[in-house]
Amino acid sequence: MHLHQPRLLSQQQQQQQQQPCEPRAAPGSLGRRVLQITQVPLDDPVVRQTLEALSLCYDQYDGSKDTGLTGLARHRDVRGDMQECTMQLDVEFARSLGMVDQVFEQLETSLDRVDQQCKHLRALVDQALRATAEVAQVASVVDDERRELALREQLAVEFVRRFSPDEAQARRLLRSPLAVDTGYFEALESVEAKRSECLKIMGAGQTAVRDLADELQMLESRAFDNLLRWLIDQVRELGRMTPDVDRWMRVALDKLRSHAALFDAGISEIARVRCEVLGREFIVALTTGGGGPGVLPRPIEAHAGDPQRYVGDMLAWVHQSCASEKEFFDALGLHQECAHMLAVALTSVARPLEIRVVQTTREMNMPVALYRVYSLLAFYHVLFNALFSTQSQATEFMDTIGSLARGTRAMLVDALERMADLVIGDFENVTTVLEAPASLGSLLQELSQIVRLHADDSLALATAEENTMQSSKDDIVDDITDILNKLIDEAQFLTDAAVIENNSGVQLRQYERSLFELNVLATVREAMANEDTSNSGSVGVLASWMPVLAQRQDAASSRLCDHLVNILKERSKLPFNASADILFADVQAFNGVLKMATDLDVTRLVSRLKDHALARSIAQSVVHSFVAEYAQLYDKICQENTTDQNILSALLSPDTVSTLL
User: Fold this and answer.
1) Residue 524: CA atoms inside 13 Å, Cβ hemisphere, count?
2) Which CATH class is domain 413-567?
3) Residues of 492-506 as b/e, b for ≥16 C-beta within 10 angstroms?
4) The pTM is what?
């Protein structure tokens, strides 16, 4: 049902509605309802107009020209019928929809069965495909293996043809006696190259050539063993001192260098053979002569009476042999192993050399001769040490040379010590002449000659050390200075002793002991100073010790001056002590002694000094010291008022006393 919209209100009516007015209730129930709904009274024109329009609307539904309410009733009946029809339609639709739902459920069940069958068929198809793929893969693998086997067969045939050892080469490498030439080394290189190629192929995973590689390795090993035996036989045949090295020997060593065990065995055997040769040739050179690199015309032992020449010839022979052996090892290409092999080769010479040197030095008593032998040993020790690159390589031979040098130096020091003990014994038998004993002169002569020889040898040793880049510590000069210090200490000890009595029973006075000490020092200084400056090469050998000797001489001179001053004071009879009073008789006695010039003659007291210049210096120092003390006494006496005039007139002035002395 459609309702017409009320007409628009006029402008005047709108203005009337906008004006505030209090609603009033219309009479009757309809008026109250209208008033409740619209808040407008029923008699309002607008409400009336609206009700009229509504009435017209109801009249349109009146088909039988009844009132409007009758039409509305019929309209309600039609609507009820329509609702019933709609409900029946809904029921029919629901029933039909249920049937359709059942059909769809049946259809879904059928589709599920179809889907399960499809999945089963798909699984069967996949299984068939996998089986087909496996069969195809197996067929492919079989085909590949067939082709690989064919290829391996071809490779094996080619390997056997290419790398199989040639029968001619095998016969050349393994025949006896072995002929080492160009063809031999070509065959050896061919076998080595084939084995190397086989090893490379085996490293890549190819096992088909393992047997072939083993066969080649066996052939190569036997060939190298034969080559080592041939090399050792060749070295044994070279039994002379200056062997000629065949070039094939050097080539053989170069080939053996790649095999460490065979190479080490080879060089060890070569060193042992050369050791035997050197030992045998050294004995020949000692006993019969004509052996060795120098081809000595006479045996070395023919000069056994001359120790220096005897030891020098033996060391020179060994040094020349070392040079020859070094050339031999260098010719073999053993530059790195030369020092070690040379040390092994010299082992056989060490013991015979040690026995003869020790036997020779034991029979020697003269220190100079012992020093000559010691100098030779020290010099050759430096030369031999230069042949070895490291100290660990200097085994038995270098230990022997060093031991001989130390032993000879010890014997030299012992001989000098014995001579020094004799000199010290002679110190106790000093005569009134107060001269140094003759044994001291002999000892100083030996020491001075040793110093001179040592100075000359030091130049040669320094040159050898510079050329060989070696250094050695020689303390023979320290031994000499220790002996000289021992002698001087003993002389000073005798001076400081309370009483010294010689064999005749004569006791030496204190100043005489100081004179003896100065004579000993002067003798030592003269001998050593003359030797230290006589040769330009020996300057500085005792340079560090000579100032010490000069200091000790100055100290002894000072002690002698003190003793002589005390003697003059004692002989003057003057009361130099401040507590005593001087008497006229004392002055007269002093003047008499001074005029006699005997008891107070200082020059006569120091006349037994060996060094006259030192004696004059000491005499002047003594006179100066005595006059200084006399001047103090003279001033003291002159300043005293109680002094007797006779004493003052008799007392000599210090200048007069100095002149008379």
Assistant:
1) 28
2) mainly alpha
3) bebbeeeebeeeeee
4) 0.61
